[in-house]
């Protein structure tokens, strides 16, 4: 039986087409000096997980996979409230 569709999941949990693996590999290519530290990364993803703009691992405002956007230290949340 298939899992029910969840609008609030990160792609880590959905992964319908192996997107999670692709995003993970892409994030590994980010140079260390451009990468978000682990604690900050976790806080960013927690904020996204609670955000109404998250849909299927993608931010509805910027269209990014949040797990990749959050991995860049210089990126920020595009929401007017700037959650991270
Ligand atoms: S608006 Fe910000 S917190 Fe919300 S999903 Fe997009 S990046 Fe994440």
Please explain how this structure is put together.
- The chain is mainly alpha-helical and 84 residues long.
- It has helices at residues 11-14, 19-28, 38-50, 66-69, and strands at 54-55, 58-59.
- A two-stranded antiparallel ribbon has the order 1-2.
- The protein is globular and about 40 Å long.
- The N and C termini lie far apart (37 Å).
- The structure holds iron/sulfur cluster (SF4).
Describe, in short, the structure shown:
Helices cover 37% and strands 5% of the residues.
How many H/I helices?
Answer: 4
Pick out the low-confidence regions: none
- Tally the beta strands: 2
Helical content band: 25-40%
Biggest sheet features:
2 strands, antiparallel
Structural class: mainly alpha
- The shape is globular
- Taken as a percent bin, the fraction of beta residues is under 5%
Helix and strand string, N-terminal first?
A: HHHEEH
Distance between the termini: 37 Å
Largest sheet strand order: 1-2
- Name the bound molecules: iron/sulfur cluster
Mean pLDDT, to the nearest integer, reads 89
Q: Using the CA coordinates, give the radius of gyration.
A: 13 Å
- Whole-number total of structural domains: 1
